[in-house]
Inverse folding.
C-alpha cells in the first residue's frame, strides 16, 4: 500500500473504534505518537538504525525489509552503513514505507525530545478526520538498487561448501 492508503486504513480503524475506546478493542503495541503517525497526523523521518536486526546472514543493513546487505558485527553495521542514504525521501525503495522498524524509533525519539507534544497527543487521542500532516518529499530520493539475491546465493554456496567438507570428513573416518 502507498502512504496515503495506509493513513486512510488506520484512520478507518481508529474511527470505527470510537474516540479513546480503540485501545480496549485492538491490541496495538506501539507508542501513541507512532499510531498517530500511521493515521497521518504526524510527520516523521525514518530512523533506519532504530531497530537493528540480526539474522543467519549477519546484522541486516539497514532495514530488514530492504535486503541491502549484512554486516558481520554490530560495530561494523553501525560504522559502515551509509544511514543517510535510506528512509522515505532518500531512497526509492522506502517511498511508501511507514513501518514500525524505522518510524516507531522516530516517534519515541520525538516523545523524549518533546514530551509535552506526546502528552498532548495522548490527551486529544488520534484524530481520524481533517487534513493530514505534510508528507516527506520524494523529489531527491535515489533510485532503488536490487542486491538482495546475491547475499542469499553467497550464503547458500557457503552452506553447500561446508556440507561437502563434512561429508568428505565423514567418509574419511
Amino acid at each position: 500500500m502507498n502512504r496515503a492508503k495506509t493513513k486512510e486504513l488506520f484512520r478507518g480503524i481508529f474511527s470505527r473504534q470510537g474516540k479513546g475506546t480503540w485501545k480496549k478493542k485492538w491490541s496495538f503495541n506501539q507508542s501513541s505518537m507512532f499510531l498517530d503517525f500511521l493515521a497521518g497526523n504526524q510527520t516523521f523521518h525514518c530512523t533506519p538504525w532504530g531497530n537493528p536486526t540480526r539474522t543467519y546472514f549477519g546484522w541486516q543493513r539497514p532495514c530488514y525489509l530492504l535486503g541491502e546487505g549484512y554486516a558481520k558485527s554490530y560495530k561494523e553495521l553501525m560504522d559502515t552503513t551509509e544511514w543517510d542514504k535510506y528512509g522515505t525521501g532518500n531512497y526509492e525503495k522506502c517511498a511508501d514505507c511507514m513501518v514500525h522498524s524505522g518510524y516507531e524509533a522516530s516517534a519515541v525519539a520525538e516523545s523524549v525530545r518533546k514530551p509535552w507534544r506526546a502528552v498532548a497527543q495522548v490527551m486529544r487521542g488520534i484524530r481520524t478526520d481533517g487534513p493530514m500532516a505534510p508528507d516527506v518529499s520524494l523529489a531527491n530520493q535515489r533510485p532503488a538498487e536490487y542486491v538482495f539475491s546475491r547475499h542469499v546465493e553467497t550464503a547458500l554456496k557457503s552452506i553447500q561448501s561446508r556440507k561437502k567438507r563434512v561429508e568428505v570428513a565423514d567418509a574419511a573416518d
Notes: The helical segments are 3-17, 22-25, 32-38, 74-80, 100-113, 115-124, 148-172. The chain has one domain: 3-147. The first helix runs from residue 3 to 17.
